[in-house]
């Protein structure tokens, strides 16, 4: 028999999805997971995302913010996506410029130009 989903778990599910986290049932928690407490009782848990997928998660979030898949974005939208990714720290990840360039269908030099523009506040 399935237990009903606790309201706290239900409420944070969209946040967990956006961050690439995993919601856990009580029996799945390990010491490295974050317990979800409600009125002093642990009702579930949250597992941090696998950082190997961090850039993909950020690209998906940027697509959501812009409202289009990367391949359908125009130049202005791509610049906006690069600015968002920069704000979110995506470019601290190894090979991120190359990976973002590939996702956007532009050269890495174009991504660097977009980054310069974003940092200049244009």
Give a description of the structure.
This protein has 122 residues and is α+β, with helices and mostly antiparallel strands. The protein folds into 2 domains: 7-49, no CATH class; 52-120. It has 5 helices and 3 strands, in the order H-E-E-E-H-H-H-H. The chain has a 3-stranded antiparallel beta sheet, covered by helices on one side. Strand 2 (34-38) and strand 3 form a beta hairpin. The longest helix has 13 residues, at 7-19. The radius of gyration is 18 Å and the shape is elongated. The chain starts with 6 loop residues before the first helix and ends with a helix.
Q: Choose one word for the global shape.
A: elongated
- Alpha carbon gyration radius: 18 Å
Q: Could you spell the SSE succession in H and E letters? A: HEEEHHHH
Oligomer: single chain
Class by helix and strand content?
Answer: alpha+beta
Strand order, sheet with most strands:
1-3-2
DSSP, total strands: 3
